[in-house]
Amino acid sequence: MKKVLLVMTLLFAFIAAPVHVVHGDGHNLDNFDYKSQEFKEIASQFMCLCGCGQDHFECNMQGCGLNDSFKAEIREMMDDGLGKDEIKDYYLNMYGEEILTAPERRGFSLVAWVLPFVALGGAGTGVFFVVRKWIAEGKGVEQIEANSADKDETEDEIVKSIIDEERKKYY
Amino acid sequence: MHIIGNLSIYLALALSVYALIIFILGIYKQDQRLVDSGKAATLAVFILTSIAMFLMLILLGTSQFQFEYVASYTSTDLPLVYKLAALWAGNSGSLLLWTFFLTMYTVMVAYSKKLKNNPMVPYISSILLGNTIFFYIILGFVTKPFGLLDFVPQEGRGLNPMLQDPGMILHPVTLYLGYVGFAVPFAFAITALILKTTDAFWLRMTRRWTIIAWCFLTLGNVIGGWWAYLELGWGGYWAWDPVENASFMPWLTATAYLHSVMIQERKGMLKVWNISLIILTYALTIFGTFLVRSGVLTSVHAFGDTNIGSYFLIFLALVVIFSLYVLMSRYHLLKQDNGQFESLLSKESSFLVNNLILVGGTFAVFWGTIFPLVSEAVRGYKVTVGIPFFNAVMSPILLGLIFVMAICPLIAWQRSTVKNLRDNFLVPAIISIVIAGLLVGLGMRAAYPILAYGLISFMLLTHLLEIYRGINARRKVTKEAYPIALYRLMVRNRRRYGGYIIHFGIGLMAIGIVGSAFDQETMQTVPKGETIEIQDYVLTYEYLAQRREGVNDVVFANIHVQKGGKDIGYIQPERLFFANWEEPHTQVAVHSTLREDLYVVLSGWESDERATFVIKVNPLVQWVWIGSYVLVIGSIFAVWPGKYGNITPRYKGPKRKVS
User: Fold this and answer.
1) Do A159 and B477 touch (CB under 8 A)?
2) DSSP code at position B505
3) What's the pLDDT tens digit per position in B283-299?
4) For position A63, what pLDDT does the model report?
5) Does A166 fall in a domain?
6) Residues near B430 by Cβ (< 8 Å), separated by ≥ 6?
7) Coil, strand or helix at B538
8) Domain co-membership, A34 together with A64
9) Residue-number span of the structural domain to which A134 is assigned
């Protein structure tokens, strides 16, 4: 009975195993959609190191063995029920941060994410205070100048251009 | 040929050095004859560069394989247009083209009618010649375009198939015209500093130059994106590749410069800032060239077959040090601003915020681009800073920019009041909120796109309102018909309305960029006669066939396309096999509409004719290209020499005996 069960289990495993048909270019020709959104979310996290400069989702370099085996491995992990973060941790442990398409958001790499906004915030604050200083410095002059608030610049320009046109007719 | 080519290079180098020395002597001795001699030498350098370039074109066109460059980038079977385009396929040829543009611009400035009797001319020419000398040193001693092989090969290595595309004809040329174009305002700025002329003369004189250079740089980037979209087969047009970033950074700083100069022209303020921006822009163009040619960062664009990157780094350092020295030595003069700000709520302030965002964006792109090197220096390993990083960091920054674009045209100079804000922004804001609400109602759930479309609508509406108000104001006085009022309003202030057209173009591009993020993709392997469905498209794979194009083989699939039950026609994605190139090449089939692109790639096939296709539906991509056409129209409109406001600015700087 045990033997029969073992044979049946093996037979079932053989039938149920996904059939990979690989064509000349090395691409899998089975029904799995390697361009699905689900696969994209996972595979696009990892950089293909074949020199194509693309991630493992986009890499379409002819005969890129690295990409083909990577995709197959990711798919296996997906079949095993591993999620996006678990697969990421797996490759992160294996290859380090170099495998990722973007730096991690912790440790030194956090600097990459934060610095642009810190710089922008700092510069923005600086500009605010500089403009405030300029306004304070120009307060005295303000009284002398005509109140130009709400003055319609376009209207002003149009009137000037029409006056110019009229003047040209007579001179 | 070999002798003429090399002679023209070395003679041009010698004459460039002569011209620089004679200009400096002419300025020092205030001797017009010496300056005139320098001008003549400048013209001779341009003629020699033209000879060298046309000679190279002849060599490429006639497949003279004894020349290393010709053998490296062409083959006999290559169509003539690509043989000629191979001029910019390699390092030395592309640098020759660069030098051609640079010497052409130098001659245009040296012999400019508008600059007749202007003492700035010898200075500007000298600065441009300094750049020319650098390029001739590279062409003469580092990467020689007319180098000969020891033998004459029967056949050349051919041009990389990816470069055999109309994009190859347009992308590098437009990009170089943009890059080199910024050398002119840079030279004007440095000259103004040397001559201690702190007014806005140099800004006004270079306004057209800068807009044209900016337009070419924009075109270069967009055409590069269009090329990548059709050629690379991954369905995207911008990958935040280090080299793409390198051409995006000067675009951002040049955009900031084009806006901030208005404050200097109007109020005499921000002189240090404007000069710094143009120095930064020019330095970034050299930095970009360094990145492309050094190979320090992984990029799909790299030339990377020589070590000329280090020369560009040295040149960059010299340019920056020289510029900063001149800037600092004149700092006390530039600080004497005569304008003032009256309110935080004013057009001046909105321009400053615009500059802050653009320069902040430049820093973010720069930081992301160099972070792999920073990481390597600090931790010993390079990390990749790719699309996810740039999308996350740049999206809020660019959205902020669109918001400021919406505010700028309608906010008053000097001071805005609450009434001004309400009158100008209330209606566009309400309509934009309604549009955002409609998008939510239509099922859009992602926050960023909703916000983005709300802001884009707001921007487009404020511009429309501004134009509408202009027309009404004109009609109040003239009683003209609406189209006439619109036409006259626009041609009488080309700069402003050209700018608004450009803003419209940016808005349309933004619609496409945000929309294309909603792409859908599938990869399926199907036998003949089977269908693939994606969204409401049904694609029936009919057959696979082969044809011969010259010496190349083309395998293509014939696919019948239906959309929503309606017959659309046939598309044929292809795979090209080149006689002279190992890797086959993918030719994407695109069915393009204003709503979306159906993008089909023939990924592979089996002996039983089952074929694998990658199929994408990319929404609104067409708007990216349409926006860029509008942007070009706006740029042309802005620089078009109409009869209104087309006055050559008067030079008020120090007088000299030489010009």
Assistant:
1) yes
2) H
3) 999 998 888 887 666 66
4) 66
5) no
6) none
7) strand
8) yes
9) 105-142
Number of domains in chain A: 2
Chain B interface includes A125 (CB < 8 A): no
Cβ contacts below 8 Å, chain A against chain B, sum to 191
B201: which residues sit within 8 A by CB, 6+ positions away?
Answer: B192, B649, B650, B651, B652, B653
Q: Residue holding tokens 């790299």?
A: B302
Residue in B243, B340, B488 to test binding to A, most A beta-carbons within 10 Å: B340
Whether residues A93 and A110 share a domain: the answer is no
User: Diameter of chain B by CA atoms?
Assistant: 84
Going by pLDDT thresholds of 50, 70 and 90, the confidence category of residue A48 is: confident
Q: Which of A42, A150, A151, A158 to mutate against chain B (most B CBs within 10 Å)? A: A158
Which amino acid does the sequence have at B421?
L
Domain boundary, last residue among A102, A131, A165 = A102
pLDDT score at B647: 67
Comparing A166 with B485, the larger pLDDT belongs to B485
Chain A residues with CB-CB distance to B492 below 8 A: 157-158, 161
User: Per-residue pLDDT tens for B575-603?
Assistant: 988 877 777 888 899 999 999 999 999 98
CATH class as words, domain B519-619: mainly beta
The pLDDT confidence band at residue B313, using thresholds 50, 70 and 90, is very high
Tell me: do A59 and A136 sit in the same domain.
Answer: no
Residues A130 and A57 in one domain: no
CB contact under 8 A, B604 and A35: no
Q: Which of A102-111, A134-143, B204-213 has the lowest mean pLDDT?
A: A134-143
Residues B531, B616: Cα–Cα separation, whole Å: 15
Share of chain A above pLDDT 70, in %: 62
Using a CB–CB cutoff of 8 Å, tell me whether A163 touches chain B.
Answer: no
Whether residues B300 and A53 touch (CB distance < 8 A) is answered with yes
pLDDT of B106: 95
Domain ranges of chain B: 1-149, 400-517+626-639, 519-619
Is A159 inside any structural domain?
Answer: no
Chain A residues touching residue B615 (CB < 8 angstroms) = 35
- Return the residue of A nearest to B608 by Cα: A23
What are the chain A neighbours of B610 within 8 Å (beta carbons)?
29
- Quick: pLDDT tens for B105-132: 999 999 998 888 888 999 999 999 999 9
Rounded (10°) CA dihedral A160, A162, A164, A166 = -150
Q: What's CA B620's distance to the chain center, in Å?
A: 22
Rounded CA-CA distance B145/A94 in Å is 46
Q: Which chain B residues have a beta carbon less than 8 Å from that of A131?
A: 341, 344, 349, 352
The Cα–Cα gap between B163 and B171 comes to 10
**DSSP string of B191-225, one letter each residue:** HHHHTT--SSHHHHHHHHHHHHHHHHHHHHHHHHH
**Among the listed ranges B46-50, B153-157, B389-393, B394-398, which one has the minimum average pLDDT value?**
B153-157
pLDDT at B449 over 50: yes
Please name the helix (run of DSSP H) or strand (run of DSSP E) that holds residue B569, with its range, or none: strand B566-571
Examine residue A135 and state whether it is found in any structural domain, yes or no. yes
Given a cut of 50, is residue A25 above it in pLDDT? no
Chain A residues 74-93 with a CB less than 8 Å from chain B = none
Nearest chain A Cα to B416, which residue?
A149
**Partner residue opposite A33 with nearest CB, options B397, B524, B603:** B524
- Range scoring the smallest mean pLDDT among A162-166, B141-145, B481-485: A162-166
Which pTM does this prediction carry? 0.89
Residue A15 pLDDT > 70: no
Q: Are residues A28 and A98 in the same domain?
A: yes
- DSSP annotation string for B629-641: HHHHHHHHHHH--
Identity of residue B544: L
Is B34 a residue whose pLDDT tops 50? yes
Does residue A11 lie in a domain region?
Answer: no
Nearest by CB: B367 against A45, A116, A137: A116
A61 and A96 together in one domain? yes
Tell me how close the Cα of A110 comes to any Cα of chain B, in angstroms.
11
- Residue B340 with chain A: CB contacts under 8 Å: 134-135, 137-138, 141-142
- On whether both A48 and A60 belong to a single domain, the answer is yes
Same domain for A55 and A115, yes or no, is no
* Residues facing B524 on adjacent strands: B613
